[in-house]
Design goal:
This protein is α/β, with parallel strands linked by helices. It has 5 helices and 6 strands, in the order E-H-H-E-H-E-H-E-H-E-E. Helix 3 links the parallel strand 2 (56-59) and strand 3. Helix 1 (32-47) runs parallel beside helix 3 and helix 4 (136-153) crosses helix 5 (165-177). This is Histidine phosphatase family protein.
Length: 218
């Protein structure tokens, strides 16, 4: 049966010494370690036939995902050319963008950050249902729309999608449990990790979900 696999890659570590919640803000780039993380994942993908033989590459339009995508393609495209395949160019899709968040631009989770201010406690009463921004259901819905379009556009193919922790995990959690709500502290989507979701092209049924963390030792 024809099946399409979408390999969701989370971006690498971001240079953020002031511990700002950067969310969708511009100007936040990969750190040196973040680039090394993505390079490790790129080598992993370039050496794996199923990952190397991609038909398309999609990316969130934010700086850190654009940079992650560029590093991945620096490794993947030469490997493709060596095997007689054409190099790929990224397609930017806002459905892969980071979750919206009311703490955007604030210093959180470090010292006297915004999370600990009494005026903000109302936003974090339930970590499974974010009252601080875009809901997990909204996030999973837009990623699901993206996935359905990709399966229609690229039947029986391998596709790369570079995104962020919340979109990747919210959609995966929906597929695995039937609901996207989750405890944000229990996610399993490491920086520069690969979450591969395979779907039947005719029915849309999930045939398998695999996870790899090639940058774990970086």
């Amino acid at each position: 049966m024809p099946a399409t696999t979408i390999h969701f890659v989370r971006h690498g570590q971001v240079d953020n010494p002031d511990h700002i919640l950067y969310e969708r803000l511009p100007g936040f780039h990969l750190s040196d370690r973040g680039r090394a993380m993505v390079e490790a994942t790129a080598r992993f993908m370039a050496e794996a036939p199923g990952l190397r033989d991609l038909e398309a590459v999609y990316s969130s339009p934010l700086d850190r995902t654009r940079e992650t995508t560029a590093i991945l393609l620096e490794q993947i495209n030469p490997a493709r050319v060596r095997h007689g395949l054409k190099p790929l160019e990224p397609i930017y899709d806002r459905r892969l963008i980071e979750a919206g968040n009311e703490f955007r631009g604030k210093r959180i989770g470090h010292g006297q950050g915004a999370l600990w201010r009494p005026s903000n406690l109302r936003l974090i009463l339930d970590l499974r249902r974010p009252s601080w921004g875009e809901s997990y259901r909204q996030i999973a819905r837009r990623v699901g729309d993206f996935v359905r379009q990709v399966v229609r556009s690229h039947p029986d193919a391998q596709v790369l999608a570079v995104s962020h922790e919340s979109p990747i995990w919210s959609y995966r959690h929906l597929l695995e449990t039937g609901h996207p709500e989750h405890n944000m502290l229990l996610r399993a989507t490491a920086l520069a990790s690969v979450t591969s979701i395979t779907l039947d092209c005719e029915t849309g049924k999930v045939l398998g979900i695999a996870y790899a963390d090639p940058a774990a030792g970086v």
